[in-house]
Design goal:
The protein is an alpha+beta fold. Helix content is 59%, strand content 12%. The chain has a domain of 71 residues: Winged helix-like DNA-binding domain superfamily/Winged helix DNA-binding domain (Arc Repressor Mutant, subunit A, Orthogonal Bundle), CATH 1.10.10.10. It is built from 5 helices and 3 strands, in the order ααβααββα.
Length: 116
């Protein structure tokens, strides 16, 4: 896998809300597929498919314990997302600072009342 396709895989993997929810659940620690699937209105094969996508992107690691497959979060690839977002964080921080300065200078705008 080229670095570009690995980068794209991470973004594609987190684009899906169910996969993001699985990652959120794995923040609590390693879990078997049945525990991960419990809160979702999806079949077990559908959850396994989502886990496969997360594994391919490097966001999830799998290990076998007897007949059970256990999954754990590997947050390292999310650094790519953070690096991509960094300029946007600076942009919004600057915009919020500018808004705060404007409000300090001009005061908070008055909301129209029902009587207006």
């Amino acid at each position: 896998m080229t670095p570009l396709s690995a980068h794209a895989d991470v973004f594609l993997a987190i684009a899906n809300p169910a996969r993001r929810a699985i990652l959120d659940r794995l923040r609590a620690g390693e879990q078997p597929v049945l525990a991960l699937a419990a809160p979702f209105d999806m079949t077990l094969p559908a959850v396994s498919q989502q886990l496969r996508i997360l594994r391919r992107a490097g966001l999830v690691r799998e290990r076998r314990h007897g007949r059970q497959r256990l999954y754990r979060l590997n947050p390292e690839p999310l650094k790519q997302v953070r690096e991509w977002m960094r300029p946007y964080e600076r942009f919004w921080s600057r915009k919020l600072r500018d808004l705060g300065e404007y409000l300090d200078k001009h005061g908070t705008p008055r909301r129209p009342s029902v009587e207006d």
